[in-house]
Amino acid sequence: MSYSRGRDERILKVRDFHYYLPEELIAQKPLDQRDMSRLMVLDKKTGDIKHAAFRDVTAYLKAGDCLVLNDTRGMPARLFGYKQNTGGRMEFLLLKRIDKDRWEVLVNPGRRAKIGSKFVFGEGQLAAEVLGSTPAGGRIVRFEYEGVFENVLDRLGTMPLPPYIREKLDDPERYQTVYSREEGSAAAPTAGLHFTRDLLREIEQKGIHTAYITLHVGLGTFRPVKAKEVEQHVMHSEYYRIDEKACRVINGAIDGGGRIIAVGTTSCRTLETVASGKRAVPGEGWTDIFIYPGYEFKLVDGLITNFHLPESTLIMLVSALAGRENILRAYSVAVEEKYRFFSFGDAMLIL
Questions:
Q1: 344 and 193 Cβ atoms separated by less than 8 Å
Q2: How confident is the model at residue 221, as a pLDDT?
Q3: Spatial distance between the Cα atoms of 264 and 343, rounded to a whole number of angstroms
Q4: What's the predicted TM-score (pTM) here?
Q5: What is the sign, positive or negative, of the torsion defined by CA atoms of 251, 287, 295, 309?
Q6: Which helix (H) or strand (E) holds 306?
Q7: Average pLDDT, stretch 90-106?
Q8: How many domains in the chain?
Q9: Which residue, of 234, 255, 287, 335, has the greatest Cβ tally within 10 A?
Q10: Domain termination residue (choose one: 156, 178, 212)
Q11: How does pLDDT run across 81-91, given as a tens digit for each residue?
Q12: Distance CA 262, CA 190 (A)
């Protein structure tokens, strides 16, 4: 879901969101302490930049503001197995649950996963049959197992890391937020990785509200934009849920004059999906909302986010909130100041 471009807006090219990034600035491991990452504070109106530590984020928040956090939890979605009749090795990456036992998956190598092919994982605890293919090149598969699927997956699966992280992660919990609870993501909502339980308590004590929503992150987040023009890109869809309690907190903050600050692009997309005027409405479903410059935000006033890949839908989203020129200038400063980029990198606060 995108929106109509105004008559005076020029056609945006994907290359308009390119920037130079030295490979050594891509963070390969998380810091020892989550909240010791750096924080760039960007004024979305003036483009002014300040530098801080993430643990000092409360200095830029006010009593009555509301942080909206995504409580999704990454699942061990990567499975390694073999083809039943040939023994050829196969990798499955779970993307989306269709129903109890059917999933949309990515497969590697794809040539081995023809319709009707069967695969085995572990020592036979899990089997899968390919039922069909998807327009994006994935497969629809049906799993067979005994017991509870999630328990089998916990035993046999591993947590997938983004393709730009090449080092082994010693503690898988470092790729989960401290408030994660709703399992279902193929990737972490990484803006939340900077929060500690102590920092969340400090936020509460300052009178800053917190509301928890769920959006299960799909691997479409990491897929490159292949279109030349931004509007030609087809956004992936992701499952979201926001309950009445979260809406009461969010709408109460709005009524009290507080700012709604999304923690991460996933929270931002969910809020804008459920917005009705300047109100959050409870609901669940699938969203393919595509936010890029020219979009008029309904609920989100500010955003805590990481530094995103060049020419990605995520840098387009932050450019919609803060202005493309402001974002590209801020990213240039981040490179000069040797900020750490992407999932395990430093953070940006846009206000």
A1: yes
A2: 67
A3: 11
A4: 0.90
A5: positive
A6: strand 302-306
A7: 91
A8: 2
A9: 287
A10: 156
A11: 999 989 999 99
A12: 13
